[in-house]
């Protein structure tokens, strides 16, 4: 992934995390730095670990018509919360719905702004 795409993912994740922290009581951050660090870590996790998990779970993902991806996204958000001090996810349900909101925001922003060209 080139720098522009990584910066784009970071920006989208940061906006998504800020909105999710404001909307859900189950996802908290002590300060803005924690949210930005969580966005950076989530971007790294989504770039490295998530593709591997998606490939490994591909047969189950096909069987569930893609619903397994929602659970993988929630796990990635929980992993980011585990790594980043000051960013906490209280339950898997909070991670699940938070990941859905971040995904919706990502799609929405991609449609409005468009992805940067290389």
Give short descriptive properties of this protein.
118 residues, mainly alpha, two-stranded antiparallel sheet, 5 helices, 2 strands, 77% helix
Task: Give a description of the structure.
The structure is a single chain. This protein has 118 residues and is mainly alpha-helical. The chain has one domain. Helix content is 77%, strand content 5%. It has 5 helices and 2 strands; from the N terminus they run H-E-H-H-H-E-H. The chain has helices spanning 3-23, 32-56, 58-63, 67-83, 92-113; strands at residues 27-29, 87-89. Strands 1-2 form a two-stranded antiparallel sheet. The chain is globular. The N and C termini lie close together (10 Å). The mean pLDDT is 90.
What secondary-structure arrangement, pairings included, does this model have?
Layout: H1 3-23, E1 27-29, H2 32-56, H3 58-63, H4 67-83, E2 87-89, H5 92-113
Antiparallel strand pairs: 1-2
Number of strands: 2
Biggest sheet record: 2 strands, antiparallel
Portion of residues in beta strands equals: 5-15%
Determine Rg (CA atoms, Å).
14 Å
Mean pLDDT figure: 90
Say what oligomer this is: single chain
* Helical content (DSSP H or I, runs of 4+): over 70%
Run of helices and strands = HEHHHEH
Structural class: mainly alpha
- Give the neighbour order of strands across the main sheet: 1-2
Query: First CA to last CA: what distance?
Result: 10 Å
Please summarize what this structure is.
The chain is mainly α and 118 residues long. The protein has helices at 3-23, 32-56, 58-63, 67-83, 92-113, and strands at 27-29, 87-89. The longest helix is centred in the middle third of the chain and has 25 residues, at 32-56.
């Amino acid at each position: 992934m080139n720098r522009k795409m990584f910066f784009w993912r970071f920006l989208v994740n940061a906006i998504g995390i800020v909105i999710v922290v404001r909307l859900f009581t189950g996802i908290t951050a002590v300060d803005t730095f924690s949210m930005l660090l969580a966005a950076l870590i989530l971007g790294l996790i989504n770039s490295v670990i998530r593709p591997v998990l998606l490939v490994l779970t591909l047969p189950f993902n096909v069987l569930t018509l893609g619903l397994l991806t929602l659970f993988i996204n929630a796990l990635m958000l929980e992993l980011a919360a585990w790594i980043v001090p000051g960013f906490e996810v209280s339950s898997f349900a909070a991670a699940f719905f938070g990941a859905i909101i971040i995904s919706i925001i990502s799609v929405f922003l991609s449609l409005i702004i468009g992805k940067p060209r290389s």
